[in-house]
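Hi there,

I know you've been waiting on this one. I reran it after we fixed the sequence typo, so this is the corrected version. Both the input and the resulting structure follow.
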Amino acid sequence: MTKVKIGNLQLEASDRYDPVIIASLEQHVTSQIQESKPYDKEANLFLLKLYQFNTSKTNVEFVKKVLILALMYGGATNDFTLATYLIQDKQVCTANILTRQ
């Protein structure tokens, strides 16, 4: 295994797209919310990209958290728009990700 740098994280993985790192990226999203860690746009968007490649591992709750972070901290930029482009249409429709509840 080698070290892979994604955003502010150094992870152990065979390569950058190894689905093994999904859990670490999800934990990183949680730490940005609960522990007020710095917003990490690159790592958050990369988590959504890994969900694209590994649809069976998609966690809708973390998709929502990434979208919330993008709105809160990337509001003046296009972070939210970039994040929505990485979400598959099927996920949006079945999970009501972008609808008011």
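Quick highlight: The mean pLDDT is 86.

Best,
R. S.
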